[in-house]
Amino acid sequence: YVRMEEALREELGCGDVRSLGAGGSGCISSADVYLCDGRKVFVKKNSKPEARIMFDGESAGLSAIHETQTIKVPKPLKVFDHNGCCYLAMEHYDMRSLHQQAENFGAKLAKLHLSNKVKIVKSLKSSGFVGKREEGVRSFGFEVYTCCGIIAMPNDWSSNWLEFYARNRLKAQLDLVEKNYQDREALELWPQVERNLHKLIPVGLEITPALLHGDLWSGNTAEVDGEPCVYDPACLYGHHEFDLSIARMFGGLPRKVFAAYHGVIPQDKGFEDRQKLYQLFHYLNHWNHFGGGYRGQSIAIMKQLAKL
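^ that's the sequence the OP posted. Answer follows.
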């Protein structure tokens, strides 16, 4: 049996490692804080078989957001296995709940969502130069599976957002609903919902792949040293509106966030109806994680979308 301090010395290449105690725990993973060569490191731990996929996805997402230099995010250090558990080590931040930085958060979130578009536009402008590499991501998806909670979401690349969202988000969750609950009403409603998707996401709606946090409820936002911060992402390149859907659920982010955000990225026609469509994924995901308490909201949205 190797002590955690020894494991961190080896994995992070540290000399002096001391435990500072528990760093809190969510409904999925627990965490501890360590002092490694004088800097605090936050280490998440999970013993479930799916933990490696979950932490690899989270680490890739943290790195992707960090690289945009748009909004503060803990830098991932290493994913590793130790004593039958999987761990994700990252920078430690002293976080406070998002309040004073709400407007700044909205503006920086918009910058994050526009960062890929900025790369694409720059790339197109310089495309005449010999040996110039194409910049920016042109498809919807992500390089690895990412998890909203413990459920791994497929992120196979697609050139069509409607197809990506229908297959890799809604259908993936509904397949789990069928497996876990054999819910006939949900299964009967799905073809009717699927038929109406093009009304909500019409061909004429211009959607440039945006780097999304993917699980942007208030519990994954904070303030650090007077700056807005996000963490615990489930990243993908998708429609920017998808990130706003869960941001309005479960108590929601402060109103100032949305005002500042839409000051940079105005709402497109059909925004409110699409928010219901995008919230449906999160209600289905909660149904699959926490049980039938979320069935009513899932079915209610599916009925609304089936009648469009």
